[in-house]
Write a structure and sequence with these properties.
heterodimer; A: about 300 residues; mainly alpha; MetI-like fold; about 0% strand; B: about 325 residues; alpha/beta; eight-stranded mixed beta sheet; four-stranded antiparallel beta sheet; 11 helices; about 30% helix; globular
């Protein structure tokens, strides 16, 4: 397994990038030099101070350490990312499997519902809903999750449609296995890889969505996330003060995380669908073997290896 | 009363392009410890009829008429839940091409165990032992149970499928082209195995195949199907030696003669009728060398000649008079 992954260098890189963020989020209390949630007493000289030895990424508009904020911000972003993604997986995979396996009217009804969700642009709808429902971490997670599950549903449904035609499903039916058990024990294992690949991309979209909502001032006011840091930076005139240490790090952190997740998602999708790769004759390893064959003197009785 | 009694089975596929009648008015019976061979060309409806027997037709398939009486009870009248309990215990099936019929990501052991656990034929703690016993029965070392289908050879997979089909001691076993995907040596092994299991366990088998040799080897009675209808039905000796239906005669004639290996191969010109353009009268009439005028107009009725020998042919009826 690991060999295959390393071959997909993009996937390996993605994995490392995401792992780095996860580690940082976990070890935040130990990695961050200061606690960004603690109250600060300082002087006016601390406001948007540029990087110094005590503050590697400088200070923000209230004198807090930017580095610590960014480190702690990873926790919120990842929490929202994975929690929303969890909702997406549970809801989307369930609907997709039911729809794909049941077919007929159930399929039609469920797909029309997902179509309704797909037609509406996600971000504007999220903005509206949050404004109405109120700010708060739980709300954000729910809103992102409930508006993103439809993509998963579609992808899972198409996988189920191909799997359910396979003969071992017919055999399971002939055995007398109930539809529920066929879905969980026979179809689900074939669908899991697809769920994984899609979920990875969903996590990245969730993180970006949260950052956007926070940036627009609709995030949880009590929590620090990368988006909220950027929100305050812009509102307090960091651009005018040319405080690059305040503006760039959260953006870089976001880009790093979503890029890592995207690399991971692409690699997973390629692993699942080998046909996405180019023809096998262009594969490095195989070409080397053929070259070697030409220079070897053939030994009688030995079968050629390609 | 026969163990399995099928009367007037008619199966259609309801597609957007129209209703296609794949099986029409099929009737046969199966006694205990008997082997019935169902022969016919590809597309003659034999597999469809078998799927209908177990009520596992694809979405578009519908049984539009008929009765399937297993031990007297009509399977077509059962609710889906009741039918699920009858499957595998009443009738089980050995599928063609075992590689496709086995779940590639689960061990052979767990798949056989699934049948046992589902129908609770064995106590939970006994399942593993029973699986080992079943594998041994079909000639697979029980220690190979935890392996996956791709680690088995073709013949072994088919034997694993047979073990699975016998797991719940079914009344009837349907073997749908059990040897088609295998080479001749393995074919012989599988057939021997089926024969031996039938003797030891008193099985009733329906053997579906297009290979007349296999039928001759294993069956007591044979049913020849063409175009979804019954052409000839009787015990093997009678049908093979005194075939009355022109199709059966041509089919048997197409078999290469071992005593005359240099003789040119004979085949039946033409091809089976497409389901959306079935001939209005006898299905075989377009390819028949003996057709009467009535053949293209009326569907020939089923005539019972000597006890248990049924033929569907106008020629035979005419002769009878």
């Amino acid at each position: 397994m690991t060999q295959v992954f390393v071959r997909y260098r993009l996937g390996g890189l993605g994995l490392v990038m995401v792992a780095a963020v996860v580690v940082v989020a976990f070890l935040a209390p130990w990695l961050a030099p200061y606690d960004p949630y603690a109250t600060i007493t300082g002087s006016s000289a601390d406001i948007m101070a540029s990087p110094s030895r005590g503050h590697l990424l400088g200070q923000d508009d209230s004198g807090k350490d930017v580095l610590s904020s960014v480190i702690y911000g990873s926790r919120i972003s990842l929490t929202v990312g994975f929690a929303a993604s969890f909702i997406v997986v549970v809801l989307g995979a369930t609907v997709g499997m039911l729809s794909g396996y049941a077919g007929g009217r159930v399929d039609m009804v469920l797909m029309r519902i997902t179509d309704a969700f797909l037609v509406v642009p996600r971000l504007p709808l999220m903005l509206v809903v949050i404004t109405v429902a109120g700010r708060g971490l739980a709300n954000i997670i729910l809103v992102i999750g409930l508006l993103s599950w439809t993509y998963m549903a579609r992808v899972v449904r198409s996988q189920v449609l191909t799997v359910k035609e396979r003969q071992f499903i017919l055999r399971a039916k002939a055995l007398g296995v109930s539809p529920a058990r066929i879905m969980t024990r026979h179809i689900l294992p074939q669908v899991v890889p697809v769920i994984f690949a899609e979920a990875t991309l969903d996590v990245s979209y969730a993180i970006l969505s949260e950052a956007t909502l926070s940036f627009l001032g609709l995030g949880d006011p009590m929590l620090i996330s990368w988006g909220s840091i950027l929100n305050r930076a812009f509102l307090r005139g960091a651009v005018m003060r040319e405080a690059w240490w305040y503006l760039i790090p959260p953006g870089v952190a976001l880009a790093w995380t979503t890029l890592g997740l995207t690399f991971l998602g692409i690699a997973l999708q390629e692993m699942i669908n080998p046909r996405l790769k180019t023809h096998h004759l262009f594969d490095e390893g195989k070409t080397v073997a053929i070259k070697r064959l030409k220079t070897r003197t053939p030994i009688l009785g030995e079968a050629p290896r390609f | 009363m026969a163990l399995l009694d099928v009367r007037g089975l008619t199966v259609e596929y309801h597609t957007p392009a129209g209703d296609l009648r794949a099986v029409e008015d099929l009737s046969f019976s199966l006694e205990e410890r008997e082997t019935l061979g169902i022969v016919g060309e590809s597309g003659c409806g034999k597999s469809t009829a078998m799927l209908a027997l177990m009520r596992i037709l694809p979405e578009e398939g519908r049984v539009v008429a008929g009765e399937i009486a297993l031990e007297g009870a009509d399977l077509l009248q059962l609710s889906p839940a009741d039918m699920r309990t009858r499957r595998w215990r009443g009738i089980s099936m050995v599928f063609q091409g075992a590689m496709n019929a086995l779940n590639p990501v689960r061990t052979i052991e767990s798949q056989i165990a699934e049948a046992l656990r589902l129908h609770e034929t064995v106590a939970g703690s006994e399942v593993k032992a029973e699986v080992g016993r079943l594998l041994d029965l079909v000639g697979i070392a029980p220690s190979r149970g935890p392996q996956y289908p791709h680690q088995y050879s073709g013949g072994m997979r088919q034997r694993a499928m047979i073990a699975m089909a016998l797991a719940c001691r079914p009344l009837v076993v349907i073997a749908d082209e059990p040897t088609t995907a295998l080479d001749v040596m393995i074919q012989a092994q599988i057939l021997d195995l089926l024969q031996q299991l039938q003797q030891d366990m008193g099985l009733s088998i329906i053997l579906v195949t297009h290979d007349l040799g296999v039928v001759a080897e294993l069956s007591d009675r044979v049913l020849v199907m063409y175009g979804g209808r019954l052409a000839e039905y009787g015990d093997v000796d009678t049908v093979y030696n005194q075939a009355l239906h022109p199709y059966t005669q041509r089919l048997l004639g197409a078999f290469p003669d071992i005593e005359n290996p240099r003789a040119p191969l004979v085949s039946i010109p033409g091809c089976p009728p497409p389901l959306d353009a079935l001939p209005p009268g006898c299905r075989f009439e377009p390819r028949c060398h003996l057709s009467l005028k009535a053949c293209s107009r009326e569907v020939p009725p089923l005539c019972e000649l000597a006890a248990g020998h049924i033929v569907s042919c106008h020629m035979v009826k005419a002769h009878d008079r």
